[in-house]
Write a structure and sequence with these properties.
This protein is of the alpha/beta class and about 400 residues long. It folds into two domains: about 210 residues, 3-Layer(aba) Sandwich (Rossmann fold); about 180 residues, Glycogen Phosphorylase B (Rossmann fold), CATH 3.40.50. α1 links the parallel β1 and β2. The longest helix has 20 residues. The protein is globular, with a radius of gyration of 22 Å. About 45% of the residues are buried.
């Protein structure tokens, strides 16, 4: 088959964006089992890559649209990008012969494209706004209209496309509870990842007191929980260190204000603060290198529709502590491939990390099983076969 994949950016190997990562691995798996893939990136990419088909140039804004933007109302960017995407898909049908296109749910672009093309559009759920936004921030009055419009567009895409895949049963169930049951094929198909060479037992033993957290400093990813947990870990393990990787998006406090990571770190005793190394956002290659130089991975999310950070940790063969939030308890298996702890519970997280530090044989055993499990359940070829079967079912009913 000839399959179109829409992605936020390209190439996938350079970005820490979870959607781009998922598309990159899926593209590799689809090619591996014999399909032709066209990549349609939202950000312009190098067309020296024969798979890439960039969006056409956007049309000019009308005077009314410009005036609306100046007054704080963005009424143009979504329609304009929808037009660009539709034109790109139509061109991919015409010159590449694509038979189906797979797109994320963001902003409901998929639903708009489906209304304007004659091939099936499949919505691939990643982080629906109606699910994630309430967890992460309090919506202020000026933004309420825009938030509601985005949720409405995403609902229309969920209900109006030719098929829907979800990376976990949890997110699919939540979407159905919010919007109802779409009249189209549905399937739970996890994201994939090629398994890299795992950490050695010797590396784990020598680095067991070096903890690694990769994720935004915000409520969803639980960066605040990690810092609270490390404060407890540091009191019992004087040689423990924490490397914190990810953008500082701030944590919304109950009063509606935002607290950023520097302010949080400033509340810690100086000796503990000195053992936390905040590196900001790094590219994918740098994150992967850090996995090989740390002994324990920590995933602290309050919710995940899938949880690439957890999958990456176990695929690298890292001893891992993971919150049992959303799909994470499907990605890892408690006491078999990782230790699961309750979300938003720094004490439980600290206890699990200390257990791994003090019992390196347990840590090594979990890491070894984790690498094998990730290699088996989440291989790109396996997931691509699942997608292939789903596409065929969609085409039958379209």
């Amino acid at each position: 088959m000839r399959i179109g994949l829409v992605t936020p950016s390209w190439p996938g190997g350079r970005s820490a964006n979870g959607i781009t990562t998922a598309v990159s691995h899926l593209a590799g798996g689809l090619r591996q089992i014999g399909h032709h893939v066209t990549i349609i990136p939202l950000e312009e990419a190098d067309e020296a890559d024969p798979a890439v088909l960039n969006l056409p140039a956007p049309r000019q804004w009308t005077l009314l649209e410009k005036l609306s933007m100046r007054s704080g109302r963005d009424v143009a960017s979504i329609p304009i990008l929808s037009e660009q995407l539709t034109q790109a898909v139509l061109k991919a049908i015409r010159i590449r012969g694509i038979e189906v296109v797979i797109m994320e749910e963001t902003n409901g672009f998929a639903g708009i494209v489906q209304k304007n093309v004659e091939i099936p559009v499949i919505v691939s759920l990643h982080g629906p706004h109606a699910i994630l936004a309430p967890i992460n921030f309090n919506v202020t009055e000026p933004k309420i209209r825009d938030e509601r419009l985005r949720v409405k567009r995403e609902a229309a895409a969920f209900l109006g496309c030719a098929g829907v895949t979800a990376p976990s049963k949890d997110v699919l169930d939540r979407m159905i509870a919010l919007y109802g049951l779409p009249d189209c094929p549905l399937s739970v198909i996890p994201n994939s990842m090629p398994a890299p060479p795992p950490l050695t037992a010797q590396a784990i033993r020598s680095q067991i007191r070096k903890l690694l957290f990769i994720g935004r400093y915000d409520l969803i990813k639980g960066g605040d929980t990690v810092i609270k947990a490390f404060e407890r870990i540091a009191q019992e393990e004087p040689e423990a260190q924490l490397t914190f990787i990810g953008p500082d998006s701030g944590v919304a406090l109950p009063d509606g204000t935002m607290q950023y990571i520097d302010a949080t770190l400033a509340t810690l005793p100086a000796g503990i603060r000195a053992r936390i190394h905040y590196r900001g956002q790094l590219d994918k290659a740098a994150c992967e290198a850090l996995r090989y130089s740390h002994g324990v991975a920590v995933v602290a999310s309050r919710y995940e529709t899938f949880g690439y950070t957890a999958l990456e940790a176990i695929a690298f063969g890292m001893p891992t502590v993971v919150t049992a939030a959303g799909a994470l308890s499907d990605v890892v298996r408690d006491k078999e491939t990782a230790i699961l702890v309750p979300a938003d519970d720094p004490d439980s997280m600290a206890y699990a990390c200390i257990q791994l530090i003090q019992e390196p044989d347990l840590a090594i055993g979990l890491a070894s099983k984790a690498h094998v499990d990730a290699s088996t359940r989440f291989s790109p070829a396996k997931i691509a076969k699942d997608i292939e079967g789903f596409i065929l079912s969609v085409k039958e009913q379209f």
